Fold this protein.
Amino acid sequence: MVTLFTVYLSFMKSLFPSIEPFNHFFLKTKNHSVYVEECGNPSGVPIVFLHGGPCSGCKPDHRRFFDPSHYHIILFDQRGSGRSLPFGELEDNTLPDLMSDMETIRKQLNLENWILFGGSWGATLALAYAQKHVDHVRAIILRGSFLARNQDMIWFSSERGVASIYPESWQALSASIPHHLRTENLLADLITVLWGKDELAIRRVAKAWQSWGGQVALGNLYQESDEHPCENTIKQVLMELHYAKNHYFLKENELLENCNKLTHLPITLIHGRADLMCPIESAWKLHQALPQAKYIVLPNAGHIAQGDEMIDALINATEEFKQF
């Protein structure tokens, strides 16, 4: 018997078939080699994928949100991330540096403008870039937006936020800090340990931080790993905390306050109601600042760009933006 839910699923869009890059190269800077790849139609509408993290990097499935016959798909691993070298390098690794890399990539590819597609930290980067280089932006698609405000860090890294939903995982994170280094500021304690010299403590904190982030981002899908953190895991955690301790190289509330520069652009905001990493209040505030934006709430989706509901919404957005 065919149910209404089955009929609904049959109309939902899925990822495009797997695709390989037609070109890739490394953008050389003073301390970094940034990996860049191009997929799809070289003469198509340019669209750039901005990954989250910081430090998560692009994956093959990230190419599949876009119709390869229509879009010139650009993906790059941000400084110190993914295939970029050296992995985990923090020197000259700031939000302005990433925006500068985007501009260099755009110019090197001879693109007058492009569509920005970003999720989580990638949404942060998309907003910051668009506010500085608005003349080179056609349109924007944002998922699980992270605004990098103090309240966002309080939500994620203090007892006054998502810790109340996952108290067991929060306790494990707190307990990873050596007792003599504990204060009432967990984020500061994590930074003290990670930039210290106690290798055992560094590994313990890195594993606990990764577990905490995985639990919050994945919810019931998260599975704890017994593996010891490798060097790249520690470097990834260091980069995440490098950005956090520098307030993501943004002034407080900067992204919302500068939204007036973007009110003429086509923008789609997609957010899962069950997103505990970046609560939906962020997307709602963006919608208030960007009244022209299409605001899409997914009742059952969380933070990650997976699941039928989220994939359908993201691909619908890229299909609708073919007109731009």
Q: What stands out?
A: The chain has eleven helices and eight strands. Residues 153-248 form one domain. Residues 256 and 288 are 9 Å apart (CA to CA).
